[in-house]
Amino acid sequence: MERKRKAILLSFDTEEFDVPLEQGVSYDPIAQGMEVSRYGIGKILDILRAAGVRATFFCTTNFAENAPHEMRRIIDEGHEMAAHGCDHFRPVPEDIARCKERLHELTGHTPQGWRQPRMFPVSDSELKRCGYIYNSSLNPAFIPGRYMHLSEPRTPFRTKEGLLQIPASVTPYFRFPLFWLAMHTLPMWLYKRWCRWTLRHDGQFVTYFHPWEFYELGRHPEFHLPLIIRHNSGATLQRRLRELIEAFKAEGAEFITYTEYTQSMPKS
């Protein structure tokens, strides 16, 4: 009997650190936030390199313009660069085309996929017109004040435009979201157990984190961040990411990029 494939689609929303703005703090995401994001990306890339796995980095043009060294590392170390808009805090529809063009100008590589800032709705028809082949902007769960997508498919599917929509993984049946916030809040043994269960059930596991999570947020009360975000950030989250990668490796899973996954899927 052929063994069912187990694919890990690990990704990072690579953006300027703008979370304090959501808390009403007077804060400049470029002048003040890029230090946080560059630090976090460096830690993430070190972990991935040591583990020998690849991931997909959804990048804003603000980040790419202000972190050329980190962008070069992403590409040179074999990861995928995808599009995440221009200004993360103030996305506009025109960013879909502008981001693709600007990332190509900055890196020489053309992004094939898109993730809308904050996983909010985005026009699939415009993504198709601009030449993207996949969209990963769906969290098929109920998260109060953010998402209500319980009627959406849990696993990747083709849209009517022909794009592959790659939702973030949620558990089977009760749809508990397994994205970044879950790894902050759940006991690690439980988080790994639910991730493995979902991987075995679905054949793939899709999740995402942010560089700023890997910064010691608890040491910066001036950011006014909720405890749920500060909890287990920095070095603790770095350790947890290493544990998660090792748990997936023990499952015999393969870490692949979103474009590789998209190209492996049927066209209809």
Short description:
This protein has 268 residues and is an alpha/beta fold. It contains 11 helices and 11 strands.
Description:
- With 268 residues, this protein is an alpha/beta fold.
- 39% of the residues lie in helices and 13% in strands.
- The chain contains eleven helices and eleven strands.
- Strands 1, 2, 3, 10 and 11 form a five-stranded parallel sheet that branches. Strands 4-5-9-8 form a four-stranded mixed sheet, covered by helices on one side. A two-stranded antiparallel sheet has the order 6-7.
- Helix 2 runs parallel beside helix 10.
- The radius of gyration is 17 Å and the shape is globular.
- The mean pLDDT is 96.
Helix/strand-derived category reads alpha/beta
SSE run:
EHHEHHEHEHEEEEEHHEHHEH
What is the molecular shape?
A: globular
Q: Tally the beta strands.
A: 11
Q: Report the sheet-strand fraction.
A: 5-15%
Nearest-integer average pLDDT: 96
N- and C-termini, Cα separation: 26 Å
Rg calculated over all Cα atoms: 17 Å
Unreliable sequence segments: none
Number of helices: 11
Helix content estimate: 25-40%
